[in-house]
Amino acid sequence: MTTESVPTGLWSTGDVEELTGILAARRSRLWQIIQPADLAAWVFADPEPAPLDPPPTAFDGNWADGLDERQRAAWILAGWVARMAVPEAAPTAGRHWLLSRVNEGRGPLLRLTVGVLETLGVYESGEEVWLRVAGAPIVLAMDAGAADLEEWGRRGIDVQEDRTKTLAEEKLLLTCPDIGTALWLLRQPPVMAAARMLNAWVSAGPFPFESRYRPEVVGRAWQAAETPLVDAASVQAAGEKGFDREYAGSAAPVDLPAQRSFDADAYRAGVREHDRLCRALIDHLTAEGLRVGAGLRGVPVDLAWRDAEGRPFIAEVKSVVGVNEVEQLRLGLGQVLEYRHRLAACGIVATPVLVVSRCTDRAWLAICGENRVVLLQGETTSDWTAELQSAA
Q1: Per the confidence metrics, is the pTM higher than 0.70?
Q2: Does residue 223 sit in the same domain as residue 95?
């Protein structure tokens, strides 16, 4: 690590200098390995993992032995976070941080402890990941529009003030519903900077847990981190099915706004038509022997499935009621392109499908085709199989 790399984007040299001063004020044996200025620059630099070689400790054998897919995903994530978010991770293992495997009420938990603070927890079941981070980078990113808490909420990410004693007023506790969501969150630059900032602070403090250090746990996770992260994101049960949850339908609320500009009858008709189209596609694919559900990796797609060859598909469904055809086509195409992009960022290459009640303007066939989106119309159900097979 050197101070030659100047952070860009949200961060400035002033941020590095301020953090350098804060860290330099601490008396720490960490400064035998790295200087405060270099550590501060690392916090804000473009994140890169610590080199795999040399490892902090040797690990004999195959790290994945005895682990099922979910457990392997948890070990991959734990090793990756240690390499990404612990300063000088290899030479400081056992002296400033450790990774432990403990049994809690919800099953085995991989827990990262840096200094006096537990900063990461990954359940081997893959059902929850929690992360403690410094609050300042997240707040700065929110103010700059670089962190969207509404998007985090849609993905099931819970954000709370963390009240453990260390820096109680200055850190956040982020909880993710699964490993794929945690990977997405940690790839956001403000989140990684926040994780590194907190770990930099606590790693420069006391470390009372040296006697609990188990080299074999750290060595196993370090080796696991060689596995591509996309594997960790794709081993959850939802990914194996090709969707997150069963389709449950939709219904318009009984009480709707009474503003003059709001047509409650049209809204209810649109909800009914949307549900009809979803169920029509589900029935069609079920007849082909495929299972269909809703959502994929936390991305709120209307429908998702895998074809007979295991290839993932996602569908955005838009009801066309009255004169809203163009509006719905534009909206639906934009949404399904966004969802394809977000899934690709998680390593999932899905075929996007736009399902509409009808399409009277044939230009939309070309528009969708140019964007590699399959356009299905509710009036031409008999052609759906051929169109989907051709797209695949």
Answers
A1: no
A2: yes
